[in-house]
């Protein structure tokens, strides 16, 4: 009976590990030339994002159960630290957080970045969740001026210029 319990426990642990064996986010970035802004949708795994938001907090943060003003403040602060847009190197344009939408095991975060003038590219530093998960990969799909492109941001390659 003891061997059976150990086998079941080992099987359960391996299933949990296999269910979420990688750490990634997907950003859909749309350049809206008429509004002079970047419109951003960012998909994150709920458990990973909640772990990052909970760092330094007295109790664990739940995107669905923690007070909405607290979640909004923590999400906005984390985005401002780890997803930085600029029209020149070193610039940090303000992020306007719009909201969150839940999926089965993930959440979509929506925000916008106003631009002072039309642009043909942006600088992006994208290190979301890398402090929490060193193997984190952040995929960015860009749509601008009728062109589509993708970029991969990971540890050691967090900053890139995206041109269109």
Automatic annotation (TrEMBL):
Keywords assigned: Signal
Cited Pfam families: DUF6702
InterPro entries: DUF6702
Signal peptide: 1-21
Official protein name in the record: Uncharacterized protein
Protein species of origin: Hymenobacter crusticola
Organismal lineage: Bacteria, Pseudomonadati, Bacteroidota, Cytophagia, Cytophagales
């Amino acid at each position: 009976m003891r061997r059976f319990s150990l086998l079941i426990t080992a099987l359960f642990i391996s299933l949990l590990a296999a269910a979420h064996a990688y750490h990634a986010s997907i950003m859909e970035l749309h350049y809206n030339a008429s509004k002079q802004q970047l419109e951003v949708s960012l998909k994150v795994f709920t458990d990973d994002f909640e772990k990052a938001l909970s760092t330094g907090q007295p109790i664990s943060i739940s995107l669905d159960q923690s007070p909405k003003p607290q979640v909004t403040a923590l999400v906005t602060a984390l985005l401002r630290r780890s997803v930085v847009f600029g029209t020149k190197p070193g610039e940090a344009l303000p992020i306007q957080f719009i909201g969150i939408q839940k999926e089965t095991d993930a959440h979509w975060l929506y925000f916008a970045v106003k631009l002072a003038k039309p642009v043909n590219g942006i600088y992006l530093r994208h290190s979301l969740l890398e402090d929490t998960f060193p193997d984190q990969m952040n995929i960015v799909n860009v749509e601008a001026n009728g062109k589509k492109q993708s970029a991969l941001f990971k540890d050691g390659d967090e900053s890139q210029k995206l041109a269109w």
